[in-house]
Amino acid sequence: MSSRLALAVVACATAVSAAEPINVGVPIAQSPPGSVVQGVQVKDGLEIVKEMVNKQGGVLGRPIALVYEDDQGIPEKGRAAVEKLINRDKVVAIVGPHQSSNCLAEIEVAKRYDIPYVNTNCWSDDVRKKGYKQVFNPNNYNSRAAFAMAETLAGLGVKRVVAFCENTDYGIGQAKAVAEALKKKKPDVEYRYDTLDRTGKDFTPAILPLRAKPPDAVLMMMLPPAAYIVMNQLYEQGVAPTDKTWLYDGAGLGDYPDFWQNVKEAGKNLIEFGLYHPDMGVPKLGKEVGDAYQKKTGHEPNRLIFQAADSLLLVVDAIKNAKSTAPDAMIKAMESMTFSGVRGTFKFSQEPGVGYQQWVDIPYVTYQFTDVGQPVSKTTLVQGPNVALAIDKLKKAK
Amino acid sequence: MLSVDLFVNGLIVGVLYALMAVGLSLIFGILKVVNFAHGEFYMLGSYAYTLSAAALGISPWLALPLAPLVGGLVGWLTERLLMRPLYSGYSSWGLMKDEYAVVVTFAFSILLVNLVNKVVGPYPQLGPALVDVSRLRLGPILLSGQKLVATCIGVAVIVGLSLAVRATVWGKRIQAVAQNRLGASLAGIDTARVSSAVFSAAGALAALAGALLAPIINASPDVGAFPAVKSYVIVVLGGMGSMPGSILASLALGVLESFGAVYVSYDYRDTFGLVILMLVLLVRPQGFFGEQGRVV
User: Fold this and answer.
1) In what order do the strands lie in the sheet with A64-70?
2) How far apart are CA B228 and CA B222, in angstroms?
3) CB contact, 8 Å: B218 with chain A?
4) How confident is residue A10, by pLDDT bands cut at 50, 70 and 90?
5) Which of A299, B7, B41, B283 counts the most CB atoms within 10 A of its CB?
6) Do A265 and B257 touch (CB under 8 A)?
């Protein structure tokens, strides 16, 4: 019996590998100046799911093949990458995009060719507001992060808040979204944001003026490596985190594998907006993906792994539901299907605006690092999907 | 008080710019080419220091000299393998294929960035501090121990180099080749050796800057782009090939950026240097210390 089963599995695997693969396009940053750190994690998440799907016989009897293009985090390169993937590699969908400025350029191409585009990690609200039927957003968005941050800031009772945002669609978008959210949640807060160059290396002149009159909170809306440099320089100048000033990161840096190697003391007492915390719980499939990632890299799983995994699973489910790889049929399937992925079950909202084709209630967490080198699993969870915001758990630096 | 802070910060940044720019200026003085891979020498120094300290588990003070050694070696190899074919056999600058140097060094820069990205990986890495003091108060000034040490070493190296170029035999050879390559070779100076030495020294200086700044500016494959762009502005501003000009322009740019970022706008920080460059070129096209070209 067992030999028959083994034979059947081998036969099935042989049939899958012999069948023509379904190409899925992945435009990500694999070289600077884009966020290669994000690109690597997105790739890791996608590869894990690809292997899982192909091991189980692929989809419609065909294996999934991921075709990568390096977009370097540069919008015009991203645009060209998506053009190439669609025309040269005949991909049936795009997954993996992770930088908002690139997403905004690339969705124009996806729209023109009517190809499903699954946004893996572009937070800019504008990606949704365009209202393109080809674009699906199973990830976080700036308004959502801004809402969470405003709620925490209101709870902290802060009066003056300064934000440092990078000069990208993501950074400026989040800074503006926080302004809007604070107006609603706590209108008496004096809030301003400074835009910093994402390729900059010395931010001391932007930080020095804060020393004379420290704000109650400094918000960070930047990606590495610039974000790490800003944090270290804030710490060096004694601006934040201190017994007077909170340091609050809105970009989810805390679960990057290289976080502690780059910030050390400057990361202690950091409040973190995040999209994954081991205590928030994930479905069985999420656990499998997380374990596979940990086995592969030795790092704790993080949000990008799960977001990438869901992006590809979404395409796989769309093909299964549509019983076809025709773009139109896949788009229709994604519009209407209820998707159960590695982070939970949801259906895309069709409401125009920032919620268009978005997982609107995407779960998020707020946590705080209380020690240098602390892994996310050991941090204090202040708020989560099943944990009400507990401000009293937050500790100021001494 | 803020002004004092900004002035000191500007000077510190200026010293570190100078470490980069002086090497670039020397190369231009000797070979009359712009080395577009100069930023990558900085990047290699940054990694050589960070990785050797981490991988070998040695003291940062022992790892520090490795950076200029690596930078110097790569500089020497660059000159021998990539630059020498451009001018060997030519006795006159007019005949040198110097336009190829732009393409060659630019391509070399892209190669090094991508090579490091693939071999070492994309993750930024903070180097270990030479002095593990996060905050040091000097009167009204607050800075890290690393910044202070890096600045002191930077000043010492720049002063030492300036004296060496003025007072040593090798310095005089460099001056001679910079003034007239053909004349220098007729006087018995091995101009090819001088070129090699200058490229090595420039590589070593840039790599040393990378190592000194690695605990402040995380090593990453593209970390060299930022100081390189500043260096190009500084070299033109100070006068192409002029070492004192480069040093003065570095300090001026550091201070200008520091004040401009606060009193004008941080958004335009990188444009201040370019605006000043344009203004200086309008009034004094040869830069602060450059000599006006003449055709005989």
Assistant:
1) A64-70, A22-28, A93-95, A117-118, A135-136
2) 11
3) yes
4) low
5) B41
6) no
